[in-house]
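queue> holo job accepted (adenosine-5'-diphosphate)
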Amino acid sequence: ETALELNQLSLWYDDKQALKDISLRIPKNRITALIGPSGCGKSTLLRCFNRMNDLIDGCRMEGDILLEQQSILHHAGDLSALRRRVGMVFQRPNPFPKSIYENVVYGLRLQGVRDRRVLDEAVERALRAAALWSEVKDSLRQNALTLSSGQQQRLVIARAVAIEPEVLLLDEPTSALDPISTLVIEELMTTLKQHFTLILVTHNMQQAARVSDYTAFMHNGSVVEFAQTDDLFTAP
Ligand code: ADP
Ligand code: ADP
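queue> job finished
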């Protein structure tokens, strides 16, 4: 089953073409890794899925991306509805300087959820999904910035999954973390795919081999290879 379908997607920053005619089907409830050398277009492609490129002056796109059959690039009107369906996690953990609890309910509050019991339940559900609940359940009022960076990254993941998006974009989510925290997040990604479609940008081939189901190799703005990860990384 396909979550995202890219049809002849191209992108320019002013005159410079950064994505070239990419057609791809990204499977639902799987982890797809985007790998390739620095500057090949991984982050640019990731930013197409939530229309973050719209914020960049001089950025122009052609082609289309369909999310569950609906156009992302030609989505009319309010982008917040789209962004609710596509969550994003960045390289550096970026919790807000607020309590753990307020970080997790942030998106729900924006959606107008006020019921305390609904929020409490969502906090527990999201923190459990992010493998952080047992560590923080007695300190939900503590400032998020007091957590370790590995915990902060899991908190950011909890914040993203709290609004139950369909797709979770992860832009080098472990490259600022120590090896143990990295393994915890890798393990977490493989459990999250039961509920979400994950797209993981990584420069780490071993990580792609460890966690992803599918791998897209990018080079110079093109996807030059897309296959099941097991087939790519096992010797013939
Ligand atoms: P990082 O890979 O450290 O997250 P960025 O995503 O900001 O860094 O940038 C990735 C690449 O895009 C770099 O090569 C950078 O020079 C280039 N880049 C980023 N923003 C701009 C910009 N506004 N104009 C031109 N090049 C940019
Ligand atoms: P990667 O994530 O694979 O390192 P990027 O998507 O960041 O690659 O960059 C792809 C190309 O687009 C690079 O040549 C980069 O310099 C350029 N680029 C990235 N962001 C911008 C931007 N905001 N403005 C202009 N050029 C950019």
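queue> Strands lie at 2-13, 16-27, 31-35, 59-67, 70-71, 86-89, 167-171, 197-201, 214-219, 222-228.
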